[in-house]
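In this notebook, the sequence line spells out the residues, with the fold written below as integer tokens. This is how one looks.
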Amino acid sequence: MLNHRNARIALKSLLILALLAGGTAMAIEEPKYEVVRTYPLFELRQYAPYLVAETEVTGDFEDVGNQAFGILADYIFGNNRSKTKLAMTAPVNQRPAEGEKIPMTAPVSQRTSASDAGSYVFSFVMPSGYRLDTLPTPNNPRIALREEPAKRMAVRRYSGRWTRSNYEENRRILLMAVQEAGLKPIGDPLYARYNPPFTPWFLRRNEVMVEIGSQAD
């Protein structure tokens, strides 16, 4: 059985996912970007800098989201030193962890590791009205705050279930299309989800994105 704290975190996770579901009824803020060019299989976007709260979790690709959502939802619902509640944004991002620890600085996204069981960094985008030095300080040491720098991203949007096979298929298509367009990808792809689990699979907005080198002008 869930203890009281775990039940509270689970409830907050459901609430935050419900907010993500209401994209047409509520103004859910997303990172600012401009579309540089539209290709047949992907879109090239220029993102402005933005802040994220992120945490590292370990487990299977398709199961780690629940754990990460609970940790990050607890932070934005007021488990921070100033007890400030933060507005929800989109997407939730996931990427493979690059080392044992995440760097400490200041939609959800995801990048994958080589096996199903691995370490992943999940992030929530912070509301644009904050700076790194004005964001509430997390009480949970597992949460790090940092600034995501401006970057150019190749982005492929798709719907469907949050399975590893669905993600991997669209990641393969994106990287192949990027190469055919003469662009140079940098680093690991990022997995972005914009909807909660109870959204019908055919209505979900998912994206796989990868940073592109400066030659893509």
Q: What stands out?
A: The radius of gyration is 17 Å.
